[in-house]
Known about the structure:
Layout: E1 2-4, E2 8-11, H1 12-19, H2 25-29, E3 34-37, H3 44-58, E4 66-72, H4 83-87, E5 103-104, H5 110-122, E6 131-140, E7 152-160, E8 166-177, E9 183-184, E10 194-195, H6 197-221, E11 234-237, H7 242-258, H8 266-275, H9 282-291, H10 293-299, H11 305-310, H12 317-326, E12 337-344, E13 348-356, H13 361-366, H14 369-374, E14 377-379, H15 381-394, E15 415-420, E16 426-430
Parallel strand pairs: 2-14, 4-5, 4-6, 11-12
Antiparallel strand pairs: 1-7, 2-3, 6-7, 8-13, 9-10, 12-13, 15-16
Helix pairs in contact: 6-7
Amino acid sequence: MEVYFPNTYVDQEELEVAYGVGKGKHTVGLGQHKMAFSSDREDINSIAMTVLSNLVNNYGIDWKDIGRLEVGTETLIDKSKSTKTCLMELFKNAGNYDIEGVTTVNACYGGTNALFNTLNWMESSAWDGRYGVVIAADLAVYAKGPARATGGAGAVAILIGENAPLVIETSIRSSFFDNQYDFYKPDPNSEYPTVDGVLSQNTYINALSKCYAGIKSKSLAAGKEDISLRDTDYFCFHSPYSKLVQKSFTQLYWEDLNRGILTPSPELVSKMEETKGGLKNKEINKMVTKESQGLWKEKTDMSLHLGRNCGNSYTGSLYFCLMSLICDPNVDLTDKRVLLFSYGSGCASSMFTIRGKADYTDIIAKSDYHERLENRIKKSPEFYEEVMAEREAHYGSHAAYTPTGPIDELVPGTYYLTAIDDKWRREYSKV
Ligand code: ACO
């Protein structure tokens, strides 16, 4: 795996002041520390190119050895030409044009669909023995209002092949799909989604609950071990902001309590008897959150390192959590099982597991993300607002465009946009 995020960010404490919301609203209420964003020098194609090129170079892969490349994104800059086709530019020198896969779109779920497609290809008679690569990348931007602080940016590249140290267990997984208008992008003239924030949170939690029930019963029906907070070592959730992940963990804890897998404290039992309430009851919710703290710290909290510091990377967000877990110095995934929950508004969701099978420290050794995260350039909220205003002014408004963002702020190896010509064709270069 390889992760990429832009080299500029805005601090959430400073955004609280600039937006005039109460102190702690973003940092405690949403659980976010920093939000990554890029200038007009980077777009969805460039961040996907950067992460793919870093993966191939860092792992010394021959460009000819990739037989499938799938992209998941909801950052659309063209209604027909897929980001996957733009990535083919990187294969030209190797003369490799025999690479299946295109871009999948469904809010934050596209990356998981790309992953499942790649696994299915590898398990099929069409597999030609080469690697699959999955890219999940997005630039998450919102209109002014409470959602804006839940933006972010990031890209992930995952190499799929034989004898992997981390194995996706394809035999048991559970999905929940429904028709909801919780977060969607109906306006071609705007980069921003239309969001019903409360509905999106509720649809997410409902999908989580349905997937959890589904994967538990499928696993038990297949004679395999139970999937619960007790029996599973680590958890990664799609993370629009960290607080929703903690709420998700509380939800699973509550469900395990109700199934008798976990034991509530006597105080919680008497409160439940007194109120006859569930998690929607504020007092009960507070008590369950408190009782789940130990397991939360042990099994999930550390997975939010990248998400807390980069914000929502939509399709990449779940895999940012996985990478944070993999690279956490106190975590050893060998012989351990990780449960992953992927959610995309609309809605599409799946739960599946990964098991650590062999030494995977190569992934940690090859990634320099901790260093890159520390060395990013902080920008002021005012600057961030200017960048957003610029994006808004230029979005879809004309064809020929020359970006003005500084190239010297990009880290070596970063692809950047040099121009959009009068036929809307984009040209890129590399730092
Ligand atoms: N100090 C500490 N906490 C505070 C403070 C403060 N000063 N002020 C508010 N809070 C808390 C609130 O109590 C609330 O906590 P709770 O959820 O535990 O009750 C939390 O901060 C959020 O505040 P709200 O006023 O409830 O919500 P807000 O109007 O800011 O909207 C939302 C939050 C809905 C997440 C919005 O940012 C949004 O629409 N984001 C985009 C949609 C989204 O991310 N949906 C999630 C799933 S879909 C997806 O991935 C895109």
